[in-house]
Structure formats: C-alpha cells, structure tokens
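Exercise: predict the structure of this protein bound to iron/sulfur cluster.
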Amino acid sequence: MNFMLLTRIKEIVEEKGFKSFKAKQIADGIYKQFVSEFAEITTLSKDERAQLEGESILSLEVFRVFRSQEDNTIKALLKLRSSGKLIETVLLNPKPGLWSTCISSQVGCAMACSFCATGTMGFLQNLTAEEIADQVLFWKQFIRKESIRDSESGELAKLSNVVFMGMGEPMANMNAVLDAIAELTNPEALDMGARNISVSTSGLVPGIKLLAENFPQVNLAISLHAPNDELRNKLMPVANKAFPLEKLAESIRWYLEKTNRKIFFEYILLKGENDSLELAAELVEWFKKINAPHLTHINLIVYNKTDSGHEESSRNQAREFKEYLTKNGFPATIRRNLGRDIMAACGQLVIKQNQ
Ligand code: SF4
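Solution:
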C-alpha cells in the first residue's frame, strides 16, 4: 500500500535536510493535532517552519461551505489542487456523540442512476487515493478550526465514521479506494477503525470481491432500489446491465460466506415506481435467495427531490413498505435525511456550472 502523505512528509524532511525525527513531529501535527498549515506545528523550529511555507498539507482546498439550518449537517465544496475540478463532501451528525462524513471517490459518475444528481454530470475524473483520504483530514481540520462541538460531550466533535457514498461509484475506482482505506486505517496516519468505514456500491461484483479480500472488516452497503431487473435497468441502467440481480445475489452469498459480516441494502423509495407492496413482496423473494436475514439490513431512504422527475413516497407508503419487509423476516428501517436544505442528502450531490 502506498501511504501518500506519510511518504511525502518523509520526502520533505529529506529534501529540506531536517533531522529524521522531524518526520514524526510533522506527522503528529497533521494526524493528531489536525493542523491546517505546517506553520502551526510548534515542535518545529521557526526556521524549519519558514522553510515549509508554501507547502500545502492537503491535495484539495476549500471552495465553499454550506451549513444546514435544519440540523448539524455541513457540506463542503472542495477544489482539487491537481485539476481544479470541484467535489462535494458532507459532515453529518446523525445523533449526539456520532459524527460521520460522506466522501466522494470520483468527479461525477458514469453509472447514470436516474434518481441521482451526480449521475447527471457524467463521469469526469477518478480521484486519487490521496484526494479521497484528504476529505476526511479536511473535516478533522475543519472541526478544530471552526471549533465544532458535540452537543452531548461539549468536546470538539470526534469524527469517527466514514461512508463512501458521496459523488461517484467507489468500486469503479477501486484501487484508489483501497489505498485510501489503508491510509484511513493506518495507525501512523488517521488510525480509524475499519468497522467504522462503509463502502456503498451500485453492485459492481468485482469490487465486492476485492473489498472482502482486502478489508473484510469494512462495511459493505449495496444500492438495490428495485427487486427485478426490468425496473432496476430503468433506475440503475449501467450497474444492473453489467451485473443483474441474479449475479449480484450470487456475489452477496459469496461475500457473506467469506466475511460473515452484515450487509446494508439501500432502497430509495420513489412514489408509484418502486414503493408498492407487490414490489415489497418481490423484494422479500429476492432476499430469500440470499437466505441470511440475520446478515442483511434494508435501509429505506425517502427520496430527496432533485429535478430528475421522480417523486418521494408518502410517509404512510414508506411505513407500510417497511412493515411488510419486517413482518416477512427482513429487518428494515426508514432512514432520516440530513442536510436536505443545503442539498447535502443522499443523491443530491452535484456540481453546477455557476458554483
Ligand atoms: S447513485 Fe451512486 S452510482 Fe448511481 S449515479 Fe449516483 S453516484 Fe453514481
């Protein structure tokens, strides 16, 4: 694995002729104190700090920040230093004491899911592993700089969870995603728990295999959204044509056998399209093929309106759909949406020309 920032720190120390133990001091400043600039690392001498002026820690820089008025969600628009392109990342506080970030793995996305704003951008670029992991470091720095506090502890928010559910299909950029996970979990770098990281995919079978082989402790989330190929081809044309539901079920059975880890299934409820009880019954039949109700959990997501033409299901319909699944032995919950007012919720991330 290639530890990007740690490697760069060592290179900088050599280039500048600093003593080798300075690499550890710099790494501590970046990964323990979350400094935004080398000048803030007080264990370096004035002269050393002056020599590092102009060097940037992150591979991306902040472009705009949006704060929700409804909850504690914050969305950041970040500019990649390499190409100048913009990506979005979100800081979420689903409940007191729990802070999580939703990060991007690509600029745009080629999967063209019909309900997703990112899909309308098409695919523009893969992010590097460094650009992916730096989104987490960005939020750690942001929390410190802006003094974002947790309402329960009163302490600075402790960002512990990472979800690959921002812009892009992570498993279409899997090498970079795997390297980024290695960076996030590296005890010398961000030192996050693998069990606190989740990768969400539209169902790319080779990526599911790679995740299980490399990081069996990382959580897998699969966007399902339809119980049959006809409907899934409409909603998720690229992913489902490549890996139809039968193939996906086969890969899930293999994954469960290998990891014995629970899989989370995302199902976005679209009014009059995939939210009927007939389709809930089909969904139950599909889950029976996997035959592991104790290792599957269905997250029903109320659709966040964009200009895609889809409508959100009523609360009542969502509840009935959920009850049907649960009654038939497949646990489901309805997920609360955060950051809707700043277009930070699931499926709403998009870069507009005028941003
Ligand atoms: S839902 Fe995910 S995979 Fe589908 S277009 Fe959006 S970002 Fe891509």
